[in-house]
Amino acid sequence: FSGLYKVVADKTPYASIEEITRKVSIGPTRFGHPCFYSPEDIKLANLTIKQGEQITFNSVEEVNGTMAVNCGVVRNNQSHSFTLPLSQEGKFYECEDDQIYTLKEIAEWKIPKCRNRIVKLSNALHTWDSSNPLPENFDGCLILTPVYEVQAVMKFRKDIVHILSDLDVEVKDITDCYDINSFLQPLSLEDVFERTSKEFPMVAEIMEGPSGSQKPYNLLHTVHKKYQATRVLASEIRSDSPKRHFLIPMSYKGKFKRRPREFPTAYDLEIARSEKEQLHVVATKAFDSPHKELFSVLVGDQFLVQQCQTSEVLYEGSKKVIDVLACEQILSDTYKKVLLPMYMEGGFVEVIHDKKQYQLSEICKEFRLPFNVKVSVRDLSVEEDVLAAVPGLQFEEEITDSYLLISSASSPVESWEIPVYRLNMSVHLLSKDVQAIVPPVTKTTVEEITEEQYYMVRRYENKNLHPPPRPPKKPT
């Protein structure tokens, strides 16, 4: 079932660290680092964990002959590591989790053994149609109860068999009687990607493919190599929803023209300002300044953005220093220097003087993202350029994603890039002793992603790319 969900923290405490390790998934992936807190101080040899302090559980390992959990706390942006033995007792509660997850991720990582999990549908994907099992405008919580099944492979079958865990049958362990290598070994794309680079190329066969996929996969294909590639995450510019979202490869051969950007505050103007060109904007919303030293804006006022600086203002009878944005107001025959408060909530739209056509790589090199464009020359190397029909695009950020390069083993005319983390597929390896060959011409295409995939990509974006919080409205 599609959609993204927020996990509601379990109110039932765990009685020991050992109970947590038995019931909660702790592992090396980004999902395997659960967080807990204790209502009482925990005194260690060289550190005291304060009550209510968030403890991140990173891994379980043996320390000096005793099984323990590697943990960490963050204080004043500094990380402190320590271990807690499994014998440590007390009350440990789950911390609130502000991340969003798919149902698959929750089922695999976020449902403790012998417990249910309460989740809330994220507003980010709050869409409804007649096939949705939830009531329209549903805004409540769901209780998830896992139903387990065993996935198995049979000696003379290539597909994966799904066996319900409550099936009333007797089984006998005959592992010692059979060669395990005679059975197919299902691997996910993540499993294949984790192989060392020396093991490529390899020949693989699909055992279970993605449902509803129209991509040109053959049953047998050569996996040439694994690698990471840069994509530009772009969204359709439109006021209503849903928007379309795309991952654009740097090899895209179309050209773009700029489209005006919109800025809700003066602070956003400062973020967008660049040394390459002077930012020219028109006010779309009036603003009355509470300080006589600063400028009041009328709809239609035009400005050239200069720089951020400080200025003294009179506030409640005393002088305060605040951040302001120095601009030049464009008048009919002259320019007037003005100061806008950085917190100013108004509205501005960019005036574009640049008529140049840009390649994707040029935009990423010369301008700050987000950046608004439209396709001016479509990519002639593909039959249908999906971006050409979109009236406007916002380039949001550059991301790095993991791919496998594959081609048909029977007819290696061209090769495709397979996204490792957005395609659910099970394969098994037929041979790892494949003669190293030059991969055929790579077919790198623009990938249109779903709303769910878009939020999953944004979820792991580089937090360092975010600007700092906007300044307060009142001088401090």
Automatic annotation (TrEMBL):
GO terms for biological process: T cell receptor signaling pathway. It comes from the Eukaryota. Residues 1-183, 200-428 form the CABIT domain. Pfam families: CABIT. One of its GO terms (cellular component) is cytoplasm. PANTHER family: CABIT DOMAIN-CONTAINING PROTEIN (PTHR15215), PROTEIN THEMIS (PTHR15215:SF1). Belongs to the themis family. This is Protein THEMIS.
